[in-house]
Design goal:
By secondary structure, the protein is α+β, with helices and mostly antiparallel strands. It has a single domain, classed as 2-Layer Sandwich (Alpha-Beta Plaits), CATH 3.30.70.920. It has four helices and four strands; from the N terminus they run βααββαβα. A four-stranded antiparallel sheet has the order 2-3-1-4. Helix 2 runs antiparallel to helix 3. The longest helix has 15 residues. It is globular.
Length: 105
């Protein structure tokens, strides 16, 4: 199943409700489960993003729907998503050839 990195920044409402962040995470997990997706990891971060998650979903449409619904429910954050791949998957399509011993003219 494709894996996605989803980043979020809290809105003013999200900052005011910061103590509810664990409950919001539980609700997002539940929503994703209902859509056939999952949140594998969640990290609360300092810096550009307030939350970084690793999610899986059957396709781009499912993860987009989950993020849009989660964004709209409480208006506590704004999210963006990135489809990701592993190093081995990225390199599997690369053909490895021996370098030519021929010198270019």
């Amino acid at each position: 199943m494709p894996r996605y990195v989803v980043t979020a920044t809290w809105t003013d409402q999200g900052v005011r409700d910061a103590t509810a962040t664990l409950e919001r995470a539980r609700q997002v997990r539940q929503l994703l489960s209902e859509l056939g997706a999952a949140m594998e990891q969640i990290y609360w971060t300092l810096g550009r993003y307030d939350v970084v998650t690793i999610m899986t979903a059957p396709d781009d449409e499912t993860i987009a729907a989950g993020v849009l619904v989660a964004d709209g429910r409480r208006r506590a954050h704004r999210a963006s998503r990135l489809r990701s791949t592993t190093a081995s998957a990225s390199c599997s399509g690369v053909r490895h050839e021996k370098p030519s011993s021929r010198v270019a003219p």
